[in-house]
Amino acid sequence: MSPDFLFFYSFCSVFYQKSPSMANQLTIDIFRKG
Asked: What is the superkingdom listed in this entry's lineage (predicted)?
């Protein structure tokens, strides 16, 4: 795991707690592209 991924993961965790549905969609989009 790269540092970028860990940063991204922690960012998603915080974002997910604030707005689950939006963060979920964002994460799906990013993993589809990647």
From this structure: Eukaryota
